[in-house]
Description:
The protein is α+β, with helices and mostly antiparallel strands. The chain folds into two domains: 1-24 and 166-194, no CATH class; 29-126 and 141-164, Immunoglobulin-like (Sandwich), CATH 2.60.40.1220. It is built from four helices and nine strands, in the order H-H-E-E-E-E-E-E-E-E-H-E-H. The strands form two sheets. The chain has a five-stranded antiparallel beta sheet, with no helix packed on it. A four-stranded mixed beta sheet has the order 2-8-7-4, with no helix packed on it. A hairpin with a 5-residue loop joins strand 7 (99-108) and strand 8 (114-123). Helix 1 runs antiparallel to helix 4 (169-191). It is elongated. The N and C termini lie close together (6 Å).
Amino acid sequence: MTGLKVARLAAAALAAATLAVLAGGPAWAHNSLVEAAPRQDAKLAKAPGEVRLRFLQKLDARYLTIVVTDAEKRKVALAAPEADGKIGTAAFAEPLPNGTYTVAYRVVSVDGHPVQGAYSFTVDGPVAQAPSAAPTPAQSPAQSPAQSQAAPAVAVVPAAVQEEGLGWWSVAAGGAGVVLLGAIAVLTLRRRPQ
């Protein structure tokens, strides 16, 4: 086999390998959640006023959905979600009572791929008691440590809830394709008669 034929075969194998690696490219364009307030699994002493989600990419308000449900899967009243750059927010219509809540979100990536996820948080503030006799001037109601705690601002959400994208294995699959094509090229060269 001439050197020219070997060079052509090697170029074809390289082109095929490049296409195999680039096939995983759209996964890198997927959006994903990176921060949230309230954060996942947070136990808040004070009900939050809104849900605030920050993503890797700029959001399009037309394709932004944020829904909050209580422990019985009933929707909580929220204002329409708003997008400002990479941040999506939705304000609660009224304060949340104590309980566990699930935040579900859906956005569309730059490449048109929908990304969705969900996580939970808990409101566990002090329970209001029935009014009793008014305190005398010498008495002042003590503030519990739970009342002085503020809801955490923005915290990172674990990668487990971030996205339904392909992740790192798309690169590994592309690499395996390169190795496979190289092996096929070598075997083809050896089998051809000189």
